[in-house]
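Weekly modeling sync, notes
Attendees: S.R. (lead), two postdocs, one rotation student

Agenda item 3: backlog of single-chain predictions. S.R. asked that every request posted to the team notebook include the full sequence so nobody has to chase files. The rotation student volunteered to paste the first one in as an example of the format we agreed on. Action items at the bottom.

Example entry:
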Amino acid sequence: MSTPVSLADRTETYRIGSGRVLLTPTPVEHIVSWKLSFRTLPAFAEGEELVQELVVHLLDKGTRKRDRFAVAEVLENRGARLDFSNDGLHVRVTGRALRDDVPDVLAMLAEQLREPLFDAQEFDKARAQLAARFHRSMDSTSSQAASALSQRLYQPAHPNFTPSPAEHLAQLQTITLEQVQAYHAAHFGGADLLVAAVGDADASAFVGALERSLGDWPAGSTQGPFETQGAPQAPARVAVPMPDKTNLDVRLGQALRVRRQDEDYLPLFLANYILGGNFSARLMAIIRDEMGLTYGIRSSLNGITTDHEGDWRVSVTLSQDNLERGIEATQAEVRRFITEGATADELDDKKTTALGSFTVGMATTRGLAAMLLRNAERGFEVSYLDAYPDLIEGVTLDQLNEAVQRHADPDTFHLTLAGQLPTPTPAEAQP
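Predicted structure, as returned to the notebook:
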C-alpha cells in the first residue's frame, strides 16, 4: 500500500510582493477555492474596529471604476463568488471561481480592495444595518451577558473587549464617511498578505494573476496598538437587568495566560471538549440531562490566538425559577472538573471527536483553504496540519489535568447574567 502524500508535500509556496501564496492541488475539476487575508489592526480603544467593519461592508458596493451592479455582473456572469469579512485583526476574503475565470475574478477582487467607491448612500445603508444589529443585541440576553463578561476580563485596547450594544450604537452614530475613507487609506494594504488556494488551480496563472493585481499593493502605513493579555478585575457577579426576559443568560469565565502556540493549548483544548465542548460533554450530561436545570450549556476557549491571550468561559441559559440552583450546580461542576480532573475514557472519547471534526473540516476545498489560511495566520508551517492528529493523540491524561490545574482557578471566575431578575421573596428582601 502506498503512503499518502502529506499536505506539506502537496502544497507549494509562492511570493507575491510582500505576501505569500499557498497552493494545494486537489482532485476537483475546473473549480478553485481560496481564502485571502491581510492585517489592518484597528486601534480598539478608540473604536476603530467599527470603522473597519464599515469599510468591509462597503467593499462589494462598487469601485471607482464601476458601480455595484457592474461589479455583480462581472461575478455573476462567471458564476464566481467573493465574500468579505473581518475579525478585528484581519480582513478576509473567501473566493470561488472556475479555473479559467480566476484571473478576471482576482483582478475584480483587487479593484474592490484597492479602489472602493465609498458611495455616501451605501455608507448610510451600511451604518443603518450595523445599527439594526446593535439594536437586536440590546434585546439579546446572550449578547448582553457576553459583553459584560468581556468587560470584566479585558481592557478596551484588547481585541476581545466588547463594548455594550448601547455603547457600540453610540460610537457608530459618530462615524463619518470621511473617517471610513481615511481608515481605508491608512490601514488597508499588503501587510501580512496571505492567500491559500485549493482545487484545480494552474499555479502560474493563479500566482501570476495575484502578482499583477496585488503584488505592488503597499502595506498600510498605520497599524493600531492592541493589548495582548487580559486585565481581569476582581471576580464579581454583575447583572444586566432586562425586563420581560424571563430566561436569563449566564456567563462564567476567567482570563487564561495561554496563546495558541503554547504547549498547554492542546491539553486545554481537549479539556474544554470534555467539560462542555459538545452535547456529550460533562456539563450537558449533568446540568441538563441529569438535573434538568437548562436546555443549553456549553464551555469554550474564547479569543485565544498566537497574537493575544483569551479566556475560558461557560455559557448557560436558565429560567428564573432555576437561576440560583443552575448557577450553583454549574459552579460546582466546573470546580469539580478543575480540582479532580478528567478521566482516561473521557480523554479518549474527545480525542476521537476532535480528530473527526478536523478531518471533516479538511474534506472540502473551501474548508481546506480556510484551514490552510488560519494555520498560516498563526505563523505555523503547513507541516503542522500533517502533525496535528499525532499531537492530539499524544496528549496524555496527566498533561491535560496538570494544564487545567496550572491555568484554571475556580475562585477567579467572573459571573455575568442578563435578563429579568427574579423578585426576592420577603425573607430574601429583609436587610
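Discussion: group reviewed the output briefly. The first helix runs from residue 7 to 10.
Action items: rotation student to repeat for the remaining queue; S.R. to check formatting next week.
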